[in-house]
Write a structure and sequence with these properties.
Elements (H helix, E strand, L loop, with lengths): L7 E16 L4 E13 L17 E3 L2 E15 L5 E14 L11 E10 L6 E5 L6 E2 L10 E16 L4 E14 L2 H16 L12 H23 L10 H29 L11 H37 L4 E8 L5 E8 L3
Parallel strand pairs: 1-7, 1-8, 9-11
Antiparallel strand pairs: 1-2, 2-5, 3-6, 4-5, 6-10, 9-10, 11-12
Helix pairs in contact: 1-2, 1-3, 2-3, 3-4
Main location: membrane
Subcellular location: Membrane
GO molecular function: extracellular ligand-gated monoatomic ion channel activity; transmembrane signaling receptor activity
Length: 348
């Protein structure tokens, strides 16, 4: 029976030195990071030689193109006299990240650097550094006007199945979090959609017996809403789901359509009921419908406002209160189903 060696434990630490633009259209972000890797090696005495001594062969799994790298090696001794090899990689480039836009423009994006090895799990196991946690440099964030960084950094221990060799490779996902600053979209998105829709109500100033005038104004408002929605959509990547601002704009378009249908019905009734003189017809049904639709409009906007607080702002507050450093262990079965459990939590 062949002798089986235990896999080496390699401690990994990532420092997000400088984060650049977060490109939601291309699903990527730019940044500079410092990757620090440590492992024990009793064969090294005074000087580490990459060609002679063991190396975990670390690389960045989600890098886009070639990263600019500067690699240095140092040696230090523990109190027990053990030799620790310290490899530091300074990385600069672009990283792929699937950006979720369900809550756009109130979204929080996870910015992840995935570290893995060319060696299998039988040879090396990657683990977050137990004494020196990963962190993010908030002061060097280049997109401060559009995004806000959280102090919280997550390290998720994972494994990757190599389809070519049918072997498992150890992996760590180190993630920081950035929230979009939505002020621009509040005023140039939600507020403008609200203003366009509210112009449905001055149409009631026109006599309902003149449906051609009412319908002309409503058609203009409806087409303006559709055009404005197309302008917003053109600035976002194509997704198979609706974003938060999509849901709001579509809701207001449906409301515009409802008002348009009502004006067509009331105009037809006012001009085609031959039993009653048009001049003597009461506008009471028109007034009643005005207040019903106004109440519906207020209710829709209040409901949407409460929903935004629940699905967007409450998770943000929870992330702000989260401890700066969390380690999680993610186990993948052969069927690609996964379970995630927190096994260690420590504060800087």
């Amino acid at each position: 029976m062949p002798f089986k060696t235990e896999p080496r434990i390699v401690n990994v630490r990532v420092i997000f030195m400088r984060l650049g633009q977060i490109n939601t259209l291309a699903d990527q972000f730019d940044g500079e990071a410092s990757l620090e890797i440590e492992w024990l090696d009793s064969n090294v005495i005074d000087e580490y030689d990459l060609k002679k001594h063991w190396n975990p062969k670390i690389y960045i799994y989600n890098a886009l193109g070639e990263l600019k790298q500067q690699i240095t090696h140092t040696i230090r001794k523990t109190a027990l006299g053990e030799t620790i090899i310290c490899e530091q990689q300074k990385l600069k480039g672009a990283y792929y990240e699937t950006l979720e836009l369900n809550n756009f423009p109130l979204d929080v994006q996870d910015l992840t650097i995935s570290i893995t090895s060319h060696l299998t799990t039988n040879e090396v196991l990657l683990r977050p550094h137990p004494q020196c946690p990963s962190r993010v440099n908030e002061s060097a964030f280049l997109a401060k006007q559009q995004w806000k960084l959280f102090k919280c950094v997550n390290a998720i221990i994972d494994t990757m199945h190599d389809e070519d060799t049918n072997q498992q490779r150890s992996m760590i996902h180190v993630t920081c979090h950035a929230q979009r600053i939505p002020t621009y979209f509040h005023w140039n998105g939600f507020f403008l959609i609200f203003i366009i829709t509210i112009f449905c109500f001055p149409v009631w100033a026109i006599d309902p017996s003149l449906p051609q005038n009412r319908l002309g104004l409503m058609a203009t408002i409806l087409l303006t809403s559709i055009s404005f929605r197309s302008t917003i959509t053109s600035k976002l990547p194509l997704t198979s789901y609706l974003t938060l601002i999509d849901k709001y704009s579509i809701t207001q378009i449906v409301f515009d359509l409802l008002c348009t249908l009502y004006h067509a019905i009331i105009g037809y009734w006012m001009n085609n009921d031959k039993l009653v003189d048009p001049k003597s017809r009461s506008r009471l049904p028109d007034y009643i419908m005005f207040f019903i639709l106004l109440s519906l409009f207020i209710l829709l906007n209040l409901t949407f406002f409460i929903w935004i607080i629940r699905v967007a702002y409450i998770p943000r507050r929870a992330l702000e209160q989260q401890i700066p450093w969390i380690i999680m262990d993610k186990q993948y079965s052969s069927s690609s189903s996964s379970t995630t459990t927190t096994f260690e939590t420590e504060r800087i």
